[in-house]
Amino acid sequence: MYSPPAKPTDRQRMHRAFAQAAQKLNTTVAGPEVWGWRGRTLSCRAHHPDHGDCWLRLLSAPEDKAAGKIWDGNGQAAALFDGHVRKPPLYDTSTAVGDGHAYRAEVHQYVNEPAVSPSPVLHSDPEPAATWWDALRTDLDYLSGVPTDRVAVRQEWADRAVPRFLGIPAPHITDWTTAHGDLHTANLTSTTPYLLDWEGFGRAPAGYDAAMLLAYSLLVPAFAQRVRHAFPVLKTEPGRIAQIIVITELLQSASRGDHPELVPALRYLATDLA
Description:
Layout: H1 8-24, E1 28-29, E2 34-35, E3 41-48, E4 52-62, H2 69-81, E5 90-98, E6 101-109, H3 130-144, H4 155-166, E7 176-179, E8 202-205, H5 208-216, H6 221-230, H7 237-254, H8 263-273
Antiparallel strand pairs: 1-3, 2-3, 3-4, 4-6, 5-6, 7-8
Helix pairs in contact: 4-7, 5-6, 5-7, 7-8
Organism: Streptomyces phaeolivaceus
GO molecular function, one term: transferase activity
Protein name: Phosphotransferase
């Protein structure tokens, strides 16, 4: 869930590290704080003397786990995609260690338009313009063809998780592309659209991003139908497989307390796909 850490001591620790990162990166806080998933990140609008308005984001992890896909994702995405797709460029980064935790601070371009929704699960129809869909499809098409050795989904995980959560054998994934990895309406802005939060990008089943956007939109059938129209891959066999993978991921996440309101719709869609 998008919320502060449950423990007051963790909130204090994050606030302290955020203030230190702001000073180190020569930024001045200029907006309200925004917490990420279970308080793992803390962000806010800031001002930089050279870049002007920017977005300061702090990621925290236990010191012995400060590595890998999530830790390096935004930096690697900047190297591959800044200037090629609609995403806020990354200006600067810093790292620090303290209290048994590691911290990665990032200064991104500030985007002066809101996200489509405040949380990943869509609850009302934003009715974006046709140009919004065209731009999103163009960027995802470009992204899908960029080589990377990062992995967003593993066949080995699917082999274990699909039978557990759906009670069916895992599909064999044969079509792989590069995916944003966390495509939902809280990571898309309302006009351009900008694609936000690239920490999970990597190789995934073809159609994975479209399947993720669809799954998080199931409570708004009109928008979900437009996702299906915008991304014909969802009507193909690779798209069916991608949807099964995404449904399994979200059911696994729901088993840990995330977005339980989605579970009935996810299971209904899984029945149609099986």
